[in-house]
């Protein structure tokens, strides 16, 4: 996943915005990332990835799935979640 790819697909929040938010706002809990354009407050798929970025000293270096895989995995997640 590149910087301009959407990390929160529900609210179209890019990885770059999240990383910037972490760097500037220094949130203490992952739930505070909701203040970053609502990231993580929709389907919930991106929450573990948001937490992963937050837990790392260097969030730019965290390896996340490519945008197509990420989107496809989310579709699966949502399908199972609604059943
Ligand atoms: S992808 Fe972020 S809440 Fe759905």
UniProtKB/TrEMBL annotation:
Top-level taxon: Bacteria
Domain named BFD-like [2Fe-2S]-binding: residues: 8-56
Region named Disordered: 60-83
The protein, known as: BFD-like [2Fe-2S]-binding domain-containing protein
Pfam family, one: Fer2_BFD
Entry-linked InterPro entries: BFD-like_2Fe2S-bd_dom (IPR007419), BFD-like_2Fe2S-bd_dom_sf (IPR041854)
Lineage, opening ranks: Bacteria, Pseudomonadati, Planctomycetota, Planctomycetia, Pirellulales
